[in-house]
Specification:
With about 425 residues, the chain is α/β, with parallel strands linked by helices. Helix content is about 35%, strand content about 25%. It has an eight-stranded mixed sheet, sandwiched between helices. Bound molecules: adenosine-5'-diphosphate (ADP), aspartic acid and magnesium ion.
Length: about 425
């Protein structure tokens, strides 16, 4: 008997009819003789609602309230798991809901952004091998102290892949509100195409560059543990064609396009430290201060203004939500870092093109800069890796840029 993990996201759990349809997918797999574990997210909008509520009550007490904040925001998944188990029982199936902790998810104590340290899945494994359906809350685990810790927004994807790996499941099926992974967000580009297969590496880049269809860590984990992941729609009636997208090893993918996808992330900010002493170790000190403040730095650039020989300007990008913490960290180390002033720019977005074919093709950057230039979109900064190119651009040009690049690399359907 094969084991299978099915995950249903927030929109897929959005109302009773959708929960019932999701349950029919589960029932179908069980009827075909698979041992099935299900991972569920909170109903759409519920985690946002809980975050607002918790934030309002904790006002000012952020530092020592993180565990209770997590206790609140993890509760949406518990409701979903219970509802799914009820819907399955209503179909005469044996089903039981499990909290993350009950299912063996051990998490680090970094509340709101905890990592899964282990999944002790023997009990779930036994239950599903015995013909029961285990419905597990996504997005959470318990810490060594027995407290609930959540895994960061979108974390149920990671819960599902981690459970699939711990159960040695043959696959992890991620049911969502789109029918697969697209060449870019289909909400922005109606001409985006579903891809049949995508490599772990490309999916990892797309996810980390903003494509929220899978949480980045879920792809990292799937790649490391070689868990085949399929992304497919929960809106299609079971039994109808629903091929989705298989995320798998590069040599199992068929389409070897130079660029296979375009991703975007809004709410980026750039910080420039003007007049940093141009001596060895100066940049090291800057980024050590930021690392200590747990600021996630993305693109980094350094320039030496011609007029001033002994100082340099160091720029880097961060998420806008990290900007305040960044400035505080820099200000508190002002003396030892020795910079003149900090300049910031907030209204930026990052747009990226990704493709394994870039390794062997020249001219990808040229095509990107021409497409943006032709639309009058100015580029603030650029970074590249082996299989991606990212640019920071004015945020109000995001959609225009994504569409232009999608067309330029011939990704448009039809
Ligand atoms: P769930 O609630 O099921 O976890 P999410 O909202 O987290 O679903 O992720 C699905 C959404 O991801 C889609 O509705 C789509 O707008 C967005 N998305 C962004 N980039 C892509 C892409 N390249 N392919 C498919 N969907 C994408
Ligand atoms: N409910 C959580 C969130 O909204 C986790 C998830 O949906 O994956 O971020
Ligand atoms: Mg999601």
């Amino acid at each position: 008997m094969d084991r299978l993990v099915l995950k249903f996201g927030g929109t897929s759990m959005g109302d009773v009819e959708r929960i019932r349809r999701a349950a029919r997918y589960v029932a179908r797999e069980a009827a075909q003789g698979q041992a099935v574990a299900v991972v569920v997210s909170a109903q759409a909008g519920e985690t946002d609602r809980l975050i607002k509520l918790a934030s309002a009550c904790m006002a000012g007490a952020d530092r020592d309230a993180a565990d209770e904040y997590d206790a609140v925001i993890a509760s949406g998944e518990q409701v979903s798991a219970g509802l799914m188990a009820l819907a399955l029982r209503a179909m005469q199936l044996k089903a039981r809901s499990w909290t993350g902790g009950q299912a063996g998810f051990r998490a680090s104590a970094a509340h709101a952004r905890a990592r899964i340290e282990a999944v002790e899945a023997d009990a779930v494994g036994e239950a599903i091998d015995g013909g029961e359906i285990a419905v597990v809350t996504g997005f959470q685990g318990t810490t060594q102290d027995g407290r609930i810790a959540t895994l960061g927004r979108g974390g149920s994807d990671t819960s599902a892949v981690a459970l699939a790996s711990a159960l040695s499941a043959k696959r992890c099926d991620i049911y969502t509100d789109v029918d697969g992974v697209y060449t870019t967000d289909p909400r922005i580009v109606p001409k985006a195409r579903r891809v049949d297969r995508i490599s772990y590496e490309e999916m990892l880049e797309l996810a980390s560059l903003g494509a929220k269809v899978l949480q980045t860590r879920s792809v990292e984990l799937a790649m490391a543990r070689k868990v085949p992941v399929r992304v497919l729609s929960s809106f299609i009636e079971p039994g109808q064609p629903n091929p989705g997208t298989l995320v798998c090893e590069e040599d199992e993918t068929m389409e070897k396009q130079v660029v296979s996808g375009v991703a975007y992330a809004r709410d980026e900010a750039r910080v420039t430290l003007v007049g940093v002493p141009d001596v060895p170790g100066a940049a090291g000190k800057v980024f050590a201060a930021l690392a200590a403040a747990e600021v996630n730095v993305d693109m980094i650039m350094q320039a030496r203004p011609r007029s001033e020989v002994e100082t340099a300007n160091i720029s880097f990008s961060v998420a806008q939500s990290d900007l305040e913490r960044t400035i505080e960290a820099l200000d508190s180390h002002r003396k030892e870092l020795g910079f003149e002033k900090v300049e910031t720019r907030k209204d930026l977005a990052k747009v990226s093109v990704v493709g394994v074919g870039m390794r062997s093709h020249a001219g990808v950057a040229h095509a990107m800069f021409s497409a943006l230039g032709e639309r009058g979109i100015s580029i603030d900064s650029i970074t590249t890796s082996e299989i991606k190119i990212s640019v920071l651009i004015p945020a109000d040009a995001t959609e225009l840029a994504v569409r232009a690049l999608h067309a330029a690399y011939k990704l448009d359907a039809g």
